[in-house]
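pinned: reference chain
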Amino acid sequence: MSEKTYTLTKKELNAEKNKAIAKFASVASHDLKNVIGGLSNIAYYFSKTLKLEGETPNAMLKLMSSEVANLNTKITTLLDMTRVKQLTKAPCDLQDIISQAVNETKTEGINFELNLLSSKIYADAERMKQVFVNIITNSKDAMQNKGIITVNMLIENNTVKTEIIDSGAGMDAETLESCLDPMFSTKLAKAVGMGLTVANQVVEMHNGTLSIESEKGKGTKVTVSLNILNS
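pinned: its structure tokens
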């Protein structure tokens, strides 16, 4: 009997990783959510009832609340990865979707330069909004919440391309190659991880593409390409 060797492509490997993540999430999410909910209630109760003296105890209590919220966000994002199975598509305007994403992510220190065009697409509007929220959030973190994010919309033939360009630290070649891999993250680029993985997954489910260009010290450009809805 001859031995056969199978080599998985990177896309197939990522698909296997996603299956493993989904299995873990389905088993652990309920218990984790209960624990996080309990910790959140304790932190809230202490913050409202305890009168702590000194800066350190109050700082620790504030840190506890912040870390609980951070953990809850990570678990929610993990669950999102396992739930992107079906889309509710309808005709919508991509310009409106991007405008909503920008409004949801506006913070002090971040300036937006918007060059938007009305463009009809057939999509799950809520899911597509989350795509751009995730991308913009990554850009904000890369710039440490201070800088310029430029959003350009370009129409080429039957495709609308949306470019999100930040003035952040950028990524080196190794990070750029792996930034769409499930669960990938680095200390220097802490936002690169499930947010972009989910965004890429949703875009692919819309028969579109998500590409990233980046250079260390020169910022990052993420391009989302989608089919225009023919009237």
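why pinned: The domain at 90-227 is CATH 3.30.565.10 (Heat Shock Protein 90). Residues 6 and 12 are 12 Å apart (CA to CA).
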